Prior knowledge:
It contains three helices and seven strands, in the order ββαββββαβα. By secondary structure, it is α+β, with helices and mostly antiparallel strands. The protein has a single domain, classed as GIY-YIG endonuclease.
Amino acid sequence: MRFGLWYPLDEAGDHAPVAPGILQLRLAHGLIDYPRGKSAMVHYAHAEDVRAAALALAATHAGEGLVARHLIEIDGATDLGTFYAKLRGEFERRFGRAPDFPEPLR
């Protein structure tokens, strides 16, 4: 399992695949205070169509300085739902809550 390079969320249509996968979003600059530390991460998504999910997020969060990346190597035996839950769970254990668009982002 490997994620690709970060790209501006506004350019998701040029980068995100029309395929099932996992998408990560973070602030391009700065950090957010979480209960047990700071992180730039703001969201994980498991989607049947990564491009559609990324485009919807780009429309909702336009101008918020977010970047995205998605899985580019996926082991065919991996259950994406389980992998997604593991990513979120590890983040929540480390930082004290899940990365779900804390307000304000700007």
